[in-house]
Amino acid sequence: MGGPGDPPEGTPEGAPAGGEDEYRSVVFDESFVRAARLQEFSAQERMADHSPAVRRRPPLQRGLSRQALILVLLIAIAFGTAIYMGVRHPYQTPATRPAEPLRMTVIPLAPQTVVPGSASTDQLYADSPAAQFRTGADGITFPAVRRTAHFSDSQVVTALTTAKDYLVESSLDPSVLTGGATRPVRILLDPRQLDQFDQSFDHPTADGRHAPTGWLVRFDGTRAQLADKGIRVQGTLQATEFDANTLEVVADHTFVYALKATGVNAQAKASLFTVRRELTFRFDRDDLRMHQAELAVSYVQAGPLACSDDSVSRLRPLLAGETAKAGGPAGTDPYATGSATALCGSLAKSAQPKV
Questions:
Q1: Are the CB atoms for 311 and 108 separated by under 8 Å?
Q2: Helix H or strand E encompassing 43
Q3: What span, in angstroms and rounded, lies between the C-alpha atoms of 297 and 219?
Q4: Is cis: bond before 304, omega within 30 of 0?
Q5: Three-state SS for 240?
Q6: Among 8, 75, 113, 226, which is least packed by CB within 10 angstroms?
Q7: Three-state SS for 288?
Q8: pLDDT tens-digit profile of 192-213?
Q9: For 210, which DSSP code?
Q10: Is pLDDT larger for residue 7 or for residue 100?
Q11: Chain segment 27-74, per-residue pLDDT in tens
Q12: Which pLDDT does position 324 carry in this prediction?
């Protein structure tokens, strides 16, 4: 039997179970009620002023909330500040210093006697001032590293490392010494000096700006070859601050090569050839970042050479048993500190092996 509200025969098949069931799918949540355009007065309000049972509510504001407006305003302020700082920031960008052309001096040193030679390169070195020199890149040592007023320890190390790499490639690489290669040296130079570098090799000139032997050590491969790849080296590196935007590294090294005539057998006598290189490198922050250097000054003394030979493009060593036709004005020792002032000097006897 059905309930008090049901039909006597019960609920028809397929019909809702009760009057409330047909509204079960409608949810009257709080947001739905607040969004209603009509609002029913309370019983007390209807008794007080006989108002209609309902009243129309003012339409809801669909604009941005206060919090959203504040957020949009903050984003706009931040964006405007970023643009302003990008256009007129308080930090001054360092002015780019133009690269100075390399100033170079190459002084040949003529022997005063016959160039001594020996079939043993070890004996040659042992009897020379280079007896205690280190071999190869081990002879290019770093000083104690100290930061400067405007450059950190790591930046000073980078400058010293780049200077050493330049010395290794331009003074010790066999492909550069006798093979005529230039790329290992060229890639270490500041791009602003590449035109001068290229012109030096395309059109060598003894003008103090365009001598290949001012950039690197290069022997005449048709005349001499390395008798021993263990080149002896000794010298110093010193890093200082040139200005607030530039580091300077001064390299002063003596390189001693064992050479013999090209094409001779292994038993042929070898002789020593000495090159004193005093190089001044400059590094701005771009150079440090790119592992490149600006070579500012190159001062070279090399011998034994004949003063009459052209030493601009390649060095033409005097080998064992040879002598110069005429010497220079005074004996110059490339192992001693100080610089020669003549365009050609005499190689001091003390700089030759005692064999």
A1: yes
A2: helix 43-49
A3: 21
A4: yes
A5: strand
A6: 8
A7: helix
A8: 999 999 999 999 999 999 999 9
A9: B
A10: 100
A11: 556 666 666 666 666 666 666 665 566 666 665 555 557 787 888 888
A12: 85
Question: Contact 113/350 with Cβ under 8 angstroms?
Answer: no
What's residue 349's pLDDT? 74
Phi, psi torsion values for 43, nearest 5 degrees: -60, -40
Give the residue carrying structure tokens 């060598």.
Answer: 204
**How many residues belong to the chain?**
355
Q: Which letter does DSSP use for residue 182 in this model?
A: -
Question: Which are the contacts of 47, defined by CB distance < 8 A and separation ≥ 6?
Answer: none
User: Measured on CA atoms in the order 133, 134, 140, 141, is the torsion positive or negative?
Assistant: negative
Q: How many CB atoms lie within 10 A of CB 303?
A: 32
Report which residue type is found at 49: D
Round to whole Å and give the CA distance between 304 and 323.
9
The stretches of 64-221 forming alpha helices (DSSP H) are 66-87, 121-126, 153-171, 174-177, 183-186, 194-202, 212-215
Per-residue model confidence (pLDDT) at position 340? 44
For residue range 156-197, list pLDDT tens digits in order: 999 999 999 999 999 999 999 998 999 999 999 999 999 999
**pLDDT of 288 higher than 90:** yes
Residues 6 or more apart from 354 whose CB is under 8 A from it? Answer: 116, 127, 128
Instruction: Report CA 94 to chain centroid distance, whole Å.
Output: 18
The arrangement of strands across the sheet holding 271-283 comes to 134-135, 224-243, 246-261, 271-283, 294-303, 103-111, 345-347, 331-332
